[in-house]
Write a structure and sequence with these properties.
Layout: H1 2-25, H2 27-38, H3 43-56, H4 60-68, E1 82-83, H5 87-92, E2 121-130, E3 145-153, H6 158-170, H7 175-179, E4 184-191, H8 203-242, H9 250-257, H10 274-281, H11 284-292, H12 303-322, H13 331-337, H14 344-347, H15 351-379, H16 385-424, H17 433-445, H18 463-482, H19 486-510, H20 517-522, H21 524-527, H22 535-551, H23 560-579, H24 588-614, H25 631-643, H26 648-652, H27 655-673, H28 681-729
Parallel strand pairs: 1-3
Antiparallel strand pairs: 2-3, 2-4
Helix pairs in contact: 1-2, 2-3, 2-6, 3-4, 8-10, 8-16, 11-28, 12-15, 12-25, 12-27, 12-28, 15-18, 15-22, 15-24, 16-17, 16-18, 16-27, 16-28, 18-19, 19-22, 19-24, 22-24, 23-24, 27-28
Amino acid sequence: MLIKILFVLNVLVIVTCFNQALVGQSVLYGILYLAKENGNFSVCHKELSNFYDAVEAQKTWALKALDASGSPGSGFFYGNNLWLGSYAQCEDLSNTKPFEISYESVKRLNVTPYDFPPFNLGFVVAYFEHNSTMQHHTQLPLEFTLQLGLCIPQICSSDDIQPLLENYVNQRYLTVQNLYNLNLNLTMVRSLEPVGFWLLKLPKTIILLSMVFVMLILTIIGTCYDVRRHKLAKNLITGHRGTLTGKQSSNEQILASEVELVSNSSSEVENISTFATILKCFSMYSNVKNLVKTDLPPDSVSVIHGLKFFGMLWVIMVHAVFYQSDYLNNVPTAYRLSEDIFAQILSNSTYSVDTYLFLSGFLLAYLFFKSRTKYETDQKKPEPIFRKISQFFMMFLNRFLRLTPPYVFIILMTDVMYTYYRKASVLYSSEHNEELCPKYWWRNLLYINNLYPRSEMCLSWSWYLSVDTQFFTIVTFLLILSTSKFKISAALTVLLIIGNVLATTYKSYTIRYIPTMDEQLTELDAIYDLPWNRIGPYLIGVITAYIYVIKLKQKLILKERTRIMLWILFPLLNLWILFTLYTRNLSVEFSAIYMGVSRTLWGIGLGWLIIACSTGNARKSNREPVSGKILKNYIVGALEKFLSFRGWIPLSRLTYCAYLLNPLLANMIYMGSNSSLNASKASFGVTTQGVAMSTYFLAFFMSVLIESPSILLTKMMFNKLTKSKNASAA
């Protein structure tokens, strides 16, 4: 008898020790234990007590729920703060439908009444602020935040779980708290609501769905009308061709080809009402045809399209990696990968944006100078001042009306999607667009949100639209001023470039800025978003257009030696800017000078590329023999042909929608995965490719359904205004 008593006591000691160890390893088991000891008689605590008893009895469902909950994992010192568990496993525990596999071949335990929980399970994520200095830190927003997933009874709310978690960490039950001398402070408990019916009741969701519904209806009606009209035009052509018999003369063939341009008696082909014209703007048939056209005017700058497309791929690649930072369980590994020499393309990738600023300035000035030259040739007289003022406001209004509709749609969509994922996803984004967009959307629509801190910015990536619009306004004024006061306009342009260099250099020096990876992220407000730090490449684009159109008359003949020297100098300049930060072992003084001049120099390098490729200075003469001396001509010639490839033209037209969609889509993909991400070269490669393809796929539909109609409606409105002005003038 004594031996039996001693044996039972020994078993109890072993079980007690096992339970104490489990309390220190499993947070869920710890709060179940506290709930059992608490003596609270609420429904939640009763189910938690039953849960605890089921774990003690080693019932299958309870062990699976314990396994689905997060616990301290490996890699804490290397940034693993995501103890998320398995949301999918917890969600599937109550699913009685067997997996569609061969259970005759797969070994498993026999089905018991304890395989499924007696009550519904839910999932909560708890957030703790920790104070560990042993962990590698990289100045990211969530680096001091531990995220813990728990599979608990669905009846338990965040308010029920919060005091249990606070009691658990305050009494330091968790083993790693004592092992790492870790203080944990519970900041929030978030209950997940995966079923999105609650989302449909929100006013912003109703507005978004209404916009989509109206847009689809207009697209369907406009497409049907346009296709019907197109068939009538084809029938009219066929009818005329049917009357031509035998051999047609050249005049008859020309007539037959031009029938489509001639209206019939019922005015179905050309003379259509304003309402019908508006409907046609939403025609998917016409919009897709216009999008995929690859015809360009003979004097166009064909390399622009290649630069735009590959510049956007660069931006997408950067965004795909940058927006992963909130969801990585090994952030220091990502920083290690960024130290590679070839990784500077990503880690020093802000010049992808400067490429677009340069192209924006170049295209604005190029179109202005081309139209200005035509106006002066036709009118042969000075332009009146009132027309210049009108032109300024009309150019700004035209830009605003073309850009804003897709922008409004993305703002609303981002607000809705972040609201959903905030309640439905295990992962947590450091951006709070669901809170900031309802407050500060007006800053976006006024294109001034880059003048405010990022902590108050709706759509962090939209800073570019604001800075680009601000530069558009300034440069439009300077261009119009140049038509009467060229020297003043030129002097102001030069002063703005000098001011940009000095302002950026001074700011960089005063904050002791060195462009390490973490400082690039933390100093965005100070040195990245503000217009006086970024206007340099935009103005270089304007100057490039002036030199190309006005001074060179789109022609440039260079000696072979000069051409070779320039093709060596300017590409090396861009490569120096991109790779000189390697190792980031820079002094504050050098860093300040580099930050002051690098963006402007980047634009200068691109300026040579545009001028050289557009004036034939990237091609080898047919009379020149192939030799090692001029082999580089084949290389730069191939570069021009590659960038001028007509296949890039439709893709370049998608850049605006792709830019708006890309960060939102990347975050949706990451948060929708409901599991942490791991930084590696392979994962970055796969992720960037997947995000890029998804971005362009959705950008195509957004461009056809929203952007193209807004452009066509704006064009129609301006045509009406022009006709009414001409009529009143007559």
